[in-house]
Amino acid sequence: MAMGPTKKELLLKAAKELFSEHGYSETTFKKISERAGVALGLLTHHFGNKEKLFLTAGLDVVHELVQTMRTNLQGVPNGLEAVRIFAKTYFDFARNPRQDFMVLVRCSPFSDLKTVEDKDVMIRNFSELYEILEECVKRGVRDGSIRDLDPHKTSVVVFCNLVGGIRHGLLTPYGDDGLFDDIVDFVIYGLKAR
Amino acid sequence: MAMGPTKKELLLKAAKELFSEHGYSETTFKKISERAGVALGLLTHHFGNKEKLFLTAGLDVVHELVQTMRTNLQGVPNGLEAVRIFAKTYFDFARNPRQDFMVLVRCSPFSDLKTVEDKDVMIRNFSELYEILEECVKRGVRDGSIRDLDPHKTSVVVFCNLVGGIRHGLLTPYGDDGLFDDIVDFVIYGLKAR
Amino acid sequence: MAMGPTKKELLLKAAKELFSEHGYSETTFKKISERAGVALGLLTHHFGNKEKLFLTAGLDVVHELVQTMRTNLQGVPNGLEAVRIFAKTYFDFARNPRQDFMVLVRCSPFSDLKTVEDKDVMIRNFSELYEILEECVKRGVRDGSIRDLDPHKTSVVVFCNLVGGIRHGLLTPYGDDGLFDDIVDFVIYGLKAR
Amino acid sequence: MAMGPTKKELLLKAAKELFSEHGYSETTFKKISERAGVALGLLTHHFGNKEKLFLTAGLDVVHELVQTMRTNLQGVPNGLEAVRIFAKTYFDFARNPRQDFMVLVRCSPFSDLKTVEDKDVMIRNFSELYEILEECVKRGVRDGSIRDLDPHKTSVVVFCNLVGGIRHGLLTPYGDDGLFDDIVDFVIYGLKAR
DNA sequence: TATGAATGAGATTTCATTCAT
DNA sequence: AATGAATGAAATCTCATTCAT
């Protein structure tokens, strides 16, 4: 028997979209259930409460990003190239509306989550991304494609470029079409060995 | 006769603190008036509504930042150094709790403001900062301290570094004490002429 | 084949415990089914609705109390002694957690039941207890162990002592360990012939 | 300028009536505000939340009872008579619909209150009644109108009679008109010196 | 008999804003 | 300018009950 998405999936999808479009507090149970075409009560039935729903939505996005990252990094020739791919993947993912990445931009996983437990879960999952990027930098330093920099510090700085780029490019009126490419160039210039 | 702050000032101060600490929607009129020790009704009386209050608070912070920026940039020898001072000033300002810079970080001037008019006012004022930074880069390119880069694109990329740095350093658990210095170094390395 | 309790029994046991611990309205179908480790839907399937479930639970407790009462009253030498045994049995039963007597204390069989029919059933069953106590008093007056009192009025007054004792001893912070004994003594003193 | 009751008072009165008539959980904010003819939001504005509202209502009743008790006990000739007056006052108060005593009977101050702080406040205020009764018993033992009993234990037992009487007389179908008098007689018989 | 997803009415609570004083 | 009571719409969350499987 061919089955479409479950109501739980419909709710999660609608929630991701609305969190992405309007942020955490502007997104209400009523709006979510209406967009999903599903009864309001199912939200707490399936997700417990609004915070857990947001956590589920956010983690989902992080997981997909990590997965995409790992896929795209396969077979990359050297560390510098890996960082470039990391950055490009990040920006591409962020711009792809199907990925609902804006959940993590429009909302704030580190301040919309109130309980320590939920924050911890989010942090733990987010950290995978950091580790992947740091691994790229380490590899670059080892293989000589990246100049002799501290891998940890450097990966954090690179991450700041990505985060700042997204906020600028997608949330403010200052970014233009080439911004993401400019940032990638700037990062690569700052890393590559001479 | 020696007079303390007016009630209007007390309210604005309390509002800034609460916006900084808990974001836009977690900050309520009741909390503000209680922290200020002032009657609730004065909020709408003086500021009109919540959005205008936030706009006032945000603009106040932007103005102070612009002022501080102009002061600190006086007598700087060259463009590259000017960019360095810009970045340092930005980070110092952000870390100074008296400045309530977190109003602009914890809240989002570009999504918590709903009306087009309010957004425009905020954008116009914020743009001063961009222009100052762009001026620094132009000067550096002119005086040879910065390599031959497009000043507009470059200033946006630098701004992304600052914005990303703040979000990382102050909102997530990933930044460490040296992060802001690392970002300044990275930016300067990326700009300076060889 | 050795069989454990049926799912229906598990549900009833869990319901009794939760009604005892938290009262009628704090006890939800979800909590009951979770404590019983049994599907939610079985509750309405087996018991109809919440009120019928409560009625079942309450009657169960009343029946066990009546049974225990009859057993303990067998072979009692005289009416006064019978009243003493009645009171002691009542208090012992109330304190025995396995009996879930608190169902009848924490909830209110006469106000949590809304339909007239359900109330009538409860009243009819409860009345057995009154009749037993009244019989004891009658017997005491007949055999001379109890002074010449109106058996009906007296049994109601004695019952008030028991009910008040339970509420005091088990629900408020004012009762102490000896309270139940004190009440028994007070009742016996008030009844016995001189 | 002649002023009627404030809206706060109207709400408290309506709340007391509804708690008395239908118990804690059947009483809703909507019903209260409708009966009071006042906006729903005023309930939390004035009383904080439902539990605090109930606490306020309950304490109000206890205070009035304590006051009435003190008034009625003035000029009583001896301890035994004082106990009789105490019991009569208690029952009269309970039957007077204007006093909303049923707030404390239909609801349960010791289980509808959830926070420890609220429970403590209630207990502290309730305890005044116990102390008054204990004082009466002490006095009776001293002046010879009451036989030589432990005043504390005795006052608790007497209280159980009153509490049980109220529950029986007002909540169950077993009490009749003379019940309260019967209980007073039983208590006095049990206490008086011979 | 057994399961738990599904429903939607209704509960408490929040809150910006209004307004009489 | 100053106060805080008053309003009511809207938010989150609860929950008995139904029903398809």
UniProtKB/TrEMBL annotation, chains A, B, C, D:
Entry keyword annotation includes DNA-binding: yes
Q: Which PROSITE patterns match?
A: HTH_TETR_2
Pinpoint the HTH tetR-type domain residues.
5-65
Please provide an example of a Pfam family that matches this protein in its UniProt record: TetR_N
One MF term in GO for this entry? DNA-binding transcription factor activity
Sorted alphabetically, the keyword list is:
DNA-binding, Transcription, Transcription regulation
Query: Residues annotated as DNA-binding region?
Result: 28-47
Descriptive protein name: Transcriptional regulator, TetR family
Species name for this entry? Desulfomicrobium apsheronum
